[in-house]
Records
---
Amino acid sequence: MLRYWSDRIAFTDQALKVNVERLEREWGKYQRSRDRNGIYRYLAAVFELITWWQHYNIAEMYARRAICLKEGRPVDHVPEPFAAIIQCTADPNKVDYRMRSKWSRALRYAFEFKRRKETLGAFMRRRGGINRCATKFARRLGRASSKAANSDLVK
Amino acid sequence: MKIRLDTYLKAHLEESHSGARPRRNRDSQDREAVLADMLAEAEAAGDPMRYPNAKGRIGWRATPQLREYLKDLKADADADAEEEAM
């Protein structure tokens, strides 16, 4: 339900386009920087955008819209929102499917377990970095976790 | 309920939309509606962005680009003021 004025402000295609462009600039900044923690700034920008979409339960719709805007045509298969926005904003020559999938898993893990007041970078570093967060996602929330639950049921 | 804005964004909106600035004697609903229109327009221009704040609510703040622009303006104004003072 839309309770606040802020909730009634439509997120237009133009607003979506400028947000995607902003993330592309963040990606560019990360590429130019020599800071080893630069990736967290880019991922934090992606995380923030998807989190507010998730707040209104519109993440999948806008992720699809972002990919369609980027491609300039309707697209059949759209990955889950984190991966979709990374696909739209990061250089595909530098971020392949596997890396995108790993970042997306790490972000989904943060989405579930990060406390609001903690920054994404601090959370991920505390949890052992992007690779560890991605692994933890698989263990706690991914297919591996449902397999484990099923095997518990069989026992 | 109030729309949550950061100080940079609030100052920018007041400055750039001074004609449409909601007056204090209007009721709060009216003021929020005017502000909502301003934000929608500014969001499409890439000035503000929404974000989930520490309380889990959606707030608005200036994009990094707008912040840089405002900082640059302030630096210019400070330099001008210094020159005039000399």
---
Amino acid sequence: MEKMGVPAIPMCTRAYTELANLTAARDGMPHLRQVFTPHPVGGKTADELAAYLVNPDPVSGKQIMKEIIDDLTVPLTPDEKKTGMQSIAAGPPTFGPETYDSLQEVFMTNGMTDYLPIIIPTEEKVEAMLKGTSHSPDEVLRKPIQGVGYLAAQWGYTVRQVAVNAVMAGCRPEYFPVVLAMASVGPLGLFGSTTSSSSAIVINGPIREKLDMNYGLGALSPFAQSNATIGRSWTLMGKNLTNGGIPGDTYQGGQGNQLDYNNCVIAEDEKNSPWPPLHVQFGFKPGENVVSIFGGPDIRQGHGARGAGAEMAMFDQQISFMCQSMVGGDGVLGILDPLVANRLVEQGYDTKEKLSDWVYKNTQRTVKDFKESFLAYFHLYPLALQGREPYATWYKLPDDAMIPFFLSAKQINFVVCGGQANAFFQIANMSHGRSVSIDQWM
Amino acid sequence: MKVNRRKLLSLLGMSPAILAGSRADAEQKKKAAAGAASEPKYTAVSPKGTPPAVQLYSMAPRLDTLDGKTIYLVDATGFFGSDKLLEKMQAWFQQNMPGVKTVFRRKAGIYGADDPKLWAEIKANGNAAIMAIGH
């Protein structure tokens, strides 16, 4: 609005002071006049909110309505009228020379690690990592773009800058094409929303064997260097390459997410799966090496089927049951042990698509439950107002009408991994983001 | 004059064993300093990406007065209570500055999304906007 010539006052609660000011600065108006109310606004009565307006802004100390009137009428200062380009410093290109332990301390205290010891990225180690790809170190994967959106500053990065983070994570050079493929996707790890969402990373293709990835017993636990460090690099890249993961600025996750340490790297067990692997479903050839990024709030354990002890224990019903407690906006990534996958084939699901379709059709909720969900109220009701379907129709239905939990069967994906110790599975409340070729980064 | 530190300490009622302690301390510090000096040093490459340069924009000229003007009160994100807060603001203007016309609107789309139709409406019909962003 300001750029359109209309004076506009953004107003939010004091909890977002730093983010609001940083966003204004990144968008080119560092002196934007903003008003802050006490926190929170949500949950307050009408009278309490009325009182907010005649009491001081907790940041400026000025009475809020007077502040608003002044902000709209007091003439601009010279600083507020400034135009032109302003450069931002990224910090020094190197650190040291220091001892190894001192450098660990420097990296940690400057917010460049996940608070676990790193491999110090010396020039020699970075050069060794760069041998893992044929791409030029100066190749730009992402250009810097002036900030839009409220989460990450739009920093850019090169192959070399990705290599530095891969070294820090403990990756070997042969893992580097996977890390580059991930970096080419963006946005990177440490998703900054208040939802504390995280990521899952699925790897398909022969590269799983080449990198000795674990997709058997303990597939999701720390039992392979490749699984562990590839996942770790996603978080370090999120912190360092795009200036993410700064609490109060580019990270607002209220409680955070344990998955952020490793981002649930899943190498699919293509050999023991009764179905085509995930990347083939997304249009890649079986022999291609592909990484797929998923994002969402959580993973929960499935632990067997409905009707345990019965002759025909029903895994499809257990999967649907697990989905009932999901957020509903994000999709599903079912992570099935081969025992579960094979049992589902016996149940009649000779393709993953049939299973996705069944889960979609049989996982439902009432319109009332939908309307009362956080996601629907904040994200989907505004879309319904715009006439976007199916939300516009759903909001017109009676409260007891049943509607699908998910938007389509395409939101529901499955991968197979696990050591066949028991017929267990896990369900991630996560949506598919993108799948990209690793081969192009060799 | 050379001072006999042992005798001096005894005269002060302190055990000369202190001397042994302080000597051990000093020797330990000397060893640590020597160790640090001999410990290899490294230069590490920064893992940071490249920030964008920022284009600065001038803010919009301010109004001479709010009297007779139209102010849009925009619920920009739909978070809990935003609409109630803006209703109270509308009531405040009605009571305290009746010469100001206020128009309440909820921005379409989710909180990050643009609403060009609304912006065009405000530009055409409004003089200022107050936007409740959250939370």
---
Amino acid sequence: MKYVLMYVSRPDLDAGADPEAAQALYKRVYEWFGENEAVMADGGAELLGVETATSVKHGDDGPVVVDGPFNEAKEIIGGFSIIEVADMDAAIEVVKSWPLLDLPGGSVEIRPMVEDYSHLEQ
Amino acid sequence: MTSAPTDGLLAQVLRQEAGPLVARLSRRFGDFDLAEEAVQSAVAEALTGWRRDGPPHNPAAWLQVAAQRNALDGVRRSNRQRALAQRVEPPAAKARPGTDDRLALLFACCHPALVPEARLALTLRAVVGLTTPQIARAFLVNESTLAQRIVRAKRKIVDAGISLAVPPSEQLSERLGDVLAVVYVMFNEGFVSSSGATQDRDLAADAVWLAGVIAASAPREPEAWGLAALLTIQHARASARFDEHGGLVLLRHQDRARWDADAIAEGEAMIERAAALRRPGRYQLQAAIAALHATAPSWEGTDWLQIAMLYELLARLDPSPVVLLNATVARAQLGTADDALATLDGLADRLASYHLFHAARAELLTTLGRHDEASEANRTALGLTANDAERRLLTTRLHRHPLDDGS
């Protein structure tokens, strides 16, 4: 099955981190992608901060462009990847070693990808 | 035709057959939801048909045929399922030969990716063969809410790719903890409400059985044996827990002659199996405490020193209010009531909102002849219980202990 991994962080909690430690963590992220190369269907992307986000939203008179992310949560998605593994347990095992889980606000959301469109073919 | 013997037979057949059937059909059709629905309908058919016409000659085969027919009907009905059934390759990775089907199913139903409230309900349905109305009655919850919860959990199992497989050995102990917790809650539900809320199913007996099945399927896991032992021993005392009016009889007043000595011996043998694996845990400790109570000649003749020591160990693994209180109650049996009261009062800041803390204080104060203070403590205990009753019923279930009088 294919799963999208969304790497979530809390910038407000990370702000005080020691730069040297942050550098070391970043190196481990790089290594982590190497270790999990076999299951990466798509390495995805790392995203620039939410301060760079622009949203286009529904408006009564047509789309409206606004500054900022789609919601004002403290947790932000910092990047994503697509993995292909046998099942949810395998996905959880991959994710458990994500280096940024060492940070207090770190989390990874696992979402199965829609792959079966057979219901649309009838 | 009286329904009682049929119900007993039904319960036995359903819990024996339902889980493995769900697992087999899931594999065959590659769809857990479909399989679970098929078995559930067969269970419902059995409940009405067997009561009306008497049980069939071979109940297990009857159930299997009915479930299989329902599954095939389901496949024919649904286009999506037809597409699934026609897939050349069923998910073969999930069919690991030699693993216990029922255990694999349990791991899926108790998966940490499911909300805790759904785990128990789903386990009762898919593994033990209860119907949704039976579960709703047992937990005093609204049937359609419960049905919703079950539907959501099943859909997640299918859509999110939660596999029906026993985890690899390096993850087994950790994941088994989730499974054992569900069985523990299931037992306590049945134990506390054994005045007959489920009517036609004895949840506590089902939990004892399931714990035994798990231990036999995972014989290298000491906590599995620990839980099986604990539940076996607690259940052996079940018939002495209620008086003829359905009132709860506390351990110290129970007629010990009514306890099931064979079951207690069986529980002790399980404790020894667990101990031989040399990895202690909370269920093993609780089982050891239960065994000391179950083999004591009387309340006064109980080995309180050992029980107090076991509670000290347990409190390190599980420093919950119930454990702390029970530890103190056990210690109180060893020394003077004065000392016990002093110890108990030392817990006041942690336990003041817990009604049994005040009930235990009241008892010690009575022993010391301080009757006014005893009444005061009793009133506090009652007040807390009354105000709390509804909330407790709904929220403390996951933490409830079967007996809160030091046993």
